[in-house]
Amino acid sequence: MAQGTGSINSDYKDWEWSDDAGERARLLQSPSVETVPKNSESRGNSLGSTSALGAVFIVVNAALGAGLLNFPAAFNMAGGVAAGIALQMCMLIFIIGGLVILAYCSQASNERTYQEVVWAVCGKVPGVLCEVAIAVYTFGTCIAFLIIIGDQEDKIIAALVKEPEEIGSSRWYTDRKFTISITAFLLILPLSIPKEIGFQKYASSLSVIGTWYVTAVIIIKYIWPDKELVPVEIPTSPSSWTAVFNAMPTICFGFQCHVSSVPVFNSMKQPEVKTWGAVVTAAMVIALFVYTGTGICGFLTFGAGVEQDVLMSYPSNDVPVALARAFIILCVLTSYPILHFCGRAVLEGLWLRYTGITVEEDVVRERRRRLLQTISWFLLTLLLALFIPDIGKVISVIGGLAACFIFVFPGLCLIQAKLSEIQETRAISWWAQVSYGVFMVTLGAFIFGQTTANAIFVDLTA
Fold first, then answer.
1. pLDDT tens digits, residue range 332-363?
2. Is 262 in contact with 112 (CB distance < 8 Å)?
3. What percent of the residues of the chain are helix, what percent strand, and what percent coil, each to the nearest 5?
4. I want to staple 400 with a disulfide (CB 3.0 to 4.6 A). Which of 210, 337, 373, 451 is the partner?
5. Is the dihedral of CA 87, 93, 99, 101 positive or negative?
């Protein structure tokens, strides 16, 4: 938890454009440990110093990540380039709308983090559901990160030992379960235990560089393909109309930056909804180009045979791709502790709220509880990652939760915010906004239900 009063993002200067991964981890801390009451005057005195341009890059940084690797497979599931682009563009309208709604509700409720806004605007039950969803989402993403490590290490080791990938390796120390476990125990667990993770400064800069490098490699490999690459079948239409929806979890997982958006909005020099609308539009357009470029070029390179992790489709001995794999492993090694910190902070907040005690009263047992939470979280994610080798199955689950953060909770916030307004007559704009909120909740619930049911009955039972 944050030092001092335990308030969330109490120093908004931490959000200046520095790509500080340690500070990003503060975004999801639970508000239940806050002891200093907030008011309009204190909010005015603590305005941030992040410029609009800086906010654009922070939002882009929050959106881009390891989900990039799954976009070529998403284009394949959607039924081709045209269907993939159309699906992204349609969803992008509501993704941007959700970000603007969260800023509006943050300003109206005077709250500064995602779950604080949901608690203040929607009430206790949605607030608790939101915190639980964040904990489950971060837990699932940590599993996905461990699977990504295993995927990339398999290819790197295959190149180093120079054994055919088809027959696998006979050496015990190259076994996938062993390599994931040793990497996790030696590197990830020590980084996850500390109470604060500010020591990971500038780690997200590496994530940004790695993401752009992976995109560049995939595009270049499509323009100048390897000679041994055989022609592939390129689907031009989905196998069925329901197959299009199977691409939605990947898109939601990729563009989900909504949980991080509220503190970024409040860190701006001028936190105004109109300015924020321009910021998130620019940021999402940049993310769209990166994801679309990766998705199209990766899909057209491998067609229907593209792997869920596109880097797995390339040969092991490809040096530029091997460097991309190393970048991805480095990104994941620094991202896992950050996401674990976020999930642990939410669980800690739920515990403190349930027991009705404050951080100051529970300092003695905090260290013991933190160690127990960290080790339990780590072992469970590692165990599941060892026995769920397909990252697509994990993303199909957590992508549905991402839809809740993008559509359901912002929609509920908009509905509640408009219903709380005291007006003698309801203008057309009021009804339009309420209808928009209802549509967002309905759309998000549909995506969550469809993808979760598909994950349970198709992916996880396969």
1. 888 888 888 888 888 888 888 887 776 666 66
2. yes
3. 75, 0, 25
4. 451
5. negative
Three-class HEC string of the chain: CCCCCCCCCCCHHHHCCCCCHHHHHHHHCCHHHCCCCCCHHHHHHCCCCECHHHHHHHHHHHHCCHHHHHHHHHHHHHCCHHHHHHHHHHHHHHHHHHHHHHHHHHHHHCCCCHHHHHHHHHCHHHHHHHHHHHHHHHHHHHHHHHHHHHHHHHHHHHHHHCCCCCCCCCCHHHCHHHHHHHHHHHHHHHHHCCCCCHHHCCHHHHHHHHHHHHHHHHHHHHHCCCCCCCCCCCCCCCCCCCHHHHHHHHHHHHHCCHHHHHHHHHCECCCCHHHHHHHHHHHHHHHHHHHHHHHHHHHHHHHHHCCCCHHHHCCCCCHHHHHHHHHHHHHHHHHHHHHHHHHHHHHHHHHHHHHCCCCHHHHHHHHHHHHHHHHHHHHHHHHHHHHCCCHHHHHHHHHHHHHHHHHHHHHHHHHHHHHCCCCCCCCHHHHHHHHHHHHHHHHHHHHHHHHHHHHHHHHCCC
Q: For residues 267 and 11, give the distance between their C-alpha atoms in angstroms, rounded to a whole number.
A: 9
Least confident of 61-75, 151-165, 216-230, 328-342: 151-165
At residue 308, φ and ψ (nearest 5 deg) are: -60, -40
Q: Which tokens belong to 215?
A: 């995109």
The three-point CA angle 380-347-22 to 5° equals: 85
